[in-house]
Amino acid sequence: MSETDRVNVLDHYLDLPVETDDIDGPMNIRQYLVTLLATLWVEKDGFSGKRPFGNSGWHWDLYNALATAGIVHSEVDMDGEIININREAAEKIVIAMIRRLGELR
């Protein structure tokens, strides 16, 4: 994959919508990650890695966005809830998106 293609793919992923009950208003993955970093900065030593927005399992907000978009393989139950996901692939993508946020445009 060329560098241009890599950047375009990651930017597309960063624009995917995130559904979360922990943050008001619609947002995409880019905004979610920026909000996470801003929360860390504001709360400093009081930052809770387990519950940065009030609830645990917050990383599933991003996993669900990637799975819903068909980017990461997942299995869902009869209610449409994700019961299994390729976490290794999801983690690699999330790390790549975080690194992409730090690149100059």
How many strands?
4
Which H/E pattern describes the elements?
HEEHHEEH
Q: Record the strand order, biggest sheet.
A: 1-2
Largest sheet: 2 strands, antiparallel
Low-confidence stretches: none
The coarse silhouette is globular
Mean pLDDT, nearest integer?
Answer: 89
C-alpha termini separation: 19 Å
- What percentage of the residues does DSSP assign to strands (E)? 5-15%
Number of separate helices: 4
Q: What is the C-alpha radius of gyration, as a whole number of Å?
A: 14 Å
Helix content: 40-55%
Structural class: mainly alpha
What does this structure look like?
The chain is mainly alpha-helical. It contains four helices and four strands. The strands form two sheets. A two-stranded antiparallel ribbon has the order 1-2. The two termini are 19 Å apart.
